[in-house]
Amino acid sequence: MKKFTALLAAAVGMMAAVTVTAQEGVKPVSIYQAPVNVLQSAGNGRCRFVDLWSVRVNTVDFLATIPNIGAEVDLSRSPYNRVSFGVDARCRWNCRRTPTSYLLNVMAVKPELKYWWRGNSVSRIAWYGGLYADCLLYTSPSPRDAWYGGLYAEGGKYKYKFGRTRDGRNGYMYGAGISAGFARPLYQYRRAALDLEVGLSAGFLSTKYDAYDFEEGSYHVIQDKSEDWHVLPYPVASQLRVAFVLRSMSVNDKYRKVSERKLIRRQERRMKD
C-alpha cells in the first residue's frame, strides 16, 4: 500500500510539473496543414536567384500575328515576398516599301508592377487553455491558383489600315492603368516549370496620329482627320493575356508562405479589442 501511494504521488507530481511547464511556455499551435509549407517561421531559407525570374509569351498577341516576349522578377528573395516587376515587349513592323491597303504595325513596351496573393480561407489557431481564434491564412477557388493585381504603364507606336475604303492611322501612344489576373501551374519539369497566366489590363490612353488613305498605290495624309496629342475619354483594354510562363520554380510554390508570428500578433490585437 505504501508503494502504491508513493507511485501515485510521483505520478501526480510529474503531471503537475508538465502542466506548469505548459502554462509557462504557452505557444499557439496551428491545426491547418497547407501544401508546400504555407506556414513557415521567419528566418527560413531564401529563394535562389534563378527562382526569382520568369519568361512568358502571350498567345493572344501571337494569334494577332504580333510577336512578343515578357520577363518578370520577384523583388525580394524572402519566402514571404508577394511583389514582382515585369516588362512585356511586342513588335510587328512591316518595313516593305510597297504600300498596301491592309496593314498592322505595332511596337510597344509595357512595364508592370504586381502584387500576388492566394484566395481567402479561414483556419483555426488553437491555444492551450481552450481558446480558439479564426485566422486568415490562404486559399483560392483552386488552391493552385495565385491571383494578382497591379499597375502598368505603356508606350509605343502603331500604324494600321484595314481595307481600301477605311482610313488608316499612323501614330504614337502612351497609357497607364490597372491589371488583374491569375496564374496556374501546368507542368513540372525536372529543373523548370510551365505555368499558365490569364489576365486583363485596362486604363486610359493618350495618343496622336496622322490619318491617311490609300490611293493609286501610295499613302496620302488626311490633314483634317489627323489628331494631335489627346486623352481618350473612355478606358481602353490595352492587353488580354493568355500566356505560357516558363519558371525555375512553379507558381504553385510561390506566394504561399505566411509569417505565422505576424498572424498571431494580429489576432492577439483583435482579441484584445
Please explain how this structure is put together.
With 273 residues, this protein is α+β, with helices and mostly antiparallel strands. The protein has one domain. 15% of the residues lie in helices and 53% in strands. The protein has three helices and 14 strands. The protein has an eight-stranded antiparallel beta barrel. Strands 1-7-8 form a three-stranded antiparallel beta sheet, with helices on one face. A two-stranded parallel ribbon has the order 2-14. Strand 4 and strand 5 form a beta hairpin. About 19% of the residues have low confidence.
- Provide the β-strand percentage band: over 45%
Unreliable sequence segments: 14-44, 121-140
Any idea how many domains? Answer: 1
Sheet with most strands:
8 strands, antiparallel, barrel
Measure the end-to-end span. Answer: 54 Å
Number of strands: 14
Count helical runs: 3
Radius of gyration: 29 Å
Work out the oligomeric state of the chains in this entry: single chain
**Estimated structural class:** alpha+beta
Q: What average pLDDT do the residues reach?
A: 78
The helix-strand sequence is HEEEHEEEEEEEEEEEH
**Going across the major beta sheet, what is the strand order?**
3-4-5-6-9-10-11-13
Helix content: 10-25%
What spatial form do the alpha-carbon principal axes imply? elongated
